[in-house]
Automatic annotation (TrEMBL):
Protein's job: Catalyzes the conversion of GDP-D-mannose to GDP-4-dehydro-6-deoxy-D-mannose.
InterPro entries: GDP_Man_deHydtase, NAD(P)-bd_dom, NAD(P)-bd_dom_sf
Keyword match 4Fe-4S: no
EC numbers on record: 4.2.1.47
GO MF, one annotated term: NADP+ binding
Record field: catalytic activity: GDP-alpha-D-mannose = GDP-4-dehydro-alpha-D-rhamnose + H2O
Keyword RNA-binding listed: no
BP GO annotations: 'de novo' GDP-L-fucose biosynthetic process
Name of the protein described by the UniProt record: GDP-mannose 4,6-dehydratase
Keywords recorded for this protein, A-Z: Lyase, NADP
Domain NAD(P)-binding residue range list: 6-319
Organism the protein comes from: Nonomuraea cavernae
Membership in a protein family: Belongs to the NAD(P)-dependent epimerase/dehydratase family. GDP-mannose 4,6-dehydratase subfamily.
One Pfam family of this chain: GDP_Man_Dehyd
Amino acid sequence: MARRALITGITGQDGSYLAEHLLGQGYEVWGLARGQANPRVSRMRRLLADVKVVRGDLLDQGSLISAVERAQPDEVYNLGAISFVPMSWEQAELTAEVTGMGVLRMLEAIRVCSGVSRGGSPNGQIRFYQASSSEMFGQVSETPQTESTAFHPRSPYGVAKAYGHFLTQNYRESYGMYAVSGILFNHESPRRGAEFVTRKVSLGVARIKLGLAGELRLGNLEARRDWGFAGDYVRAMHLMLRAEKPEDYVIGTGRMKSVRELVEAAFTAAGLDWERYVVTDQGLHRPAEVDLLCADPKKARVQLGWEPTMSFEELVAMMVESDLRLLTDGGDPGDGSWP
Ligand code: NAP
Ligand code: G4F
């Protein structure tokens, strides 16, 4: 019988890649979608026709219990979140509720539905993946960051993710649940939301190249991130849930680039000189910045056999090409450029 997976955040970047990956592995895939007329749900249904949709919201405990009862999953991937860091200062309480407390509600739904009590055995139970984030490292105490690097989150988002991370660990220890967290570093694709810096840059470059814009306004160009391809990272999520023992893993490339280097690479990919078009804007700087993030993915490589397949340069060139095609074809950038 096919394994069954339930994915929260199915309309997001990672939800789409993970659904495709699991469908390719023969899974029956269920996606939790919120709202009564969410346009992102209609788009997802068009592009991922084999995904079964179940309505629910991470703010609503009852809906999560119903979703688990209906989907009867072997694996639950909790990708749903308010995931844009600047928004977490503007709506800190909502971020805590969705990105933090949402993890508690999902874990409780699984615990209640599978009748787990303290000291229960993980065998035969629903396996749970939590989308933890390198934002939890925040003001880093060492570089590169590993599974044992201390957390010092710098945004309400990072704090909410740290809560979800420790809670997942606690449910594993308290109830013997197969519950793991992937501490994922930044991962991108043509499906990335237009508010994140890589997509903002690839769309900005495409607009300038096509004569639709004359400048690109950005914040801190000195911040450094470890950027990889989302398609590679969802494979790691699946490997974590299929491992023999429930453990947490850092997932990243181990290579760090600055926003300035990202900008240079993207403009170069379109044959443009970035210095003619990029304007820095103090209003786009954050109240507390995460200056650098760089993964040490050794544990995932050794224990899961996971490796990233796409270089930073290939990723940036792919995103620029994709946005040039999207805008040339009259597509809606808000829609991303799903094939
Ligand atoms: P994304 O594109 O922003 O997707 C977020 C998803 O969460 C959307 O499907 C959204 O659905 C859903 N959502 C928001 N509020 C919800 C609620 N109240 N109830 C249920 N679902 C809700 O994020 P992503 O890049 O795919 O990232 C997936 C997960 O990994 C997130 O938890 C993110 O924080 C985490 N993460 C991402 C990265 C990265 O670099 N991409 C790195 C580390 C961790 P709607 O369409 O209804 O808004
Ligand atoms: O692309 P960003 O908005 O991603 P950020 O804040 O690193 O968060 C992403 O990665 C996390 C994993 O580490 C995820 F957990 C999270 O959900 C999200 O997916 O910003 C990257 C860097 C920042 O340092 C920011 O200050 O780019 C800098 N930046 C400079 N100018 C900008 C801009 N970021 C955005 N979004 N827009 C700008 O104009």
